[in-house]
Amino acid sequence: xxxxxxxxxxxxxxxxxxxxxxxxxxxxxxxxxxxxxxxxxxxxxxxxxxxxxxxxxxxxxxxxxxxxxxxxxxxxxxxxxxxxxxxxxxxxxxxxxxxxxxxxxxxxxxxxxxxxxxxxxxxxxxxxxxxxxxxxxxxxxxxxxxxxxxxxxxxxxxxxxxxxxxxxxxxxxxxxxxxxxxxx
Length: 184
What we know:
Helix 2 (57-70) crosses helix 4 (164-177). It is built from 4 helices and 15 strands. The chain has one domain (47-177): Alpha-D-Glucose-1,6-Bisphosphate, Chain A, domain 4. By secondary structure, the protein is an alpha+beta fold.
């Protein structure tokens, strides 16, 4: 008996658990990757990375904008009033700062290996600063999709972030602020 795709997705979503950890760039979760009969990748959990930083919101905003540049994703939105820094859309092929795209994104497997390495990934990334005084909470979320180069797919494939970009941004914010990284 074959379960309909959305019933399987709901079943897997009910099995996922999330555990938040302070000082960590990413929440741990039971991550399920599903593909439908057309090869579209769906995930039950795509999480935002969070960190608590002992600095003022204004200092974190300045460090955050510089951090985007340092990791190779220049911000095109810096909004101090809403405490947001983001890159609304950026398309990359093959590699970002020397890393193959499959190191950064999970777009599923294709005929010749990871799909992320054989297409154009379009990503959006947004970081928000919550709080009016130190310590603040920094949350970063990456949304990515792939347009394969092979021409076999006529629509974009949703990609999950592997958490590496979020971690690089977090580490760079700490470096910009001159604050040592938490040990746990």
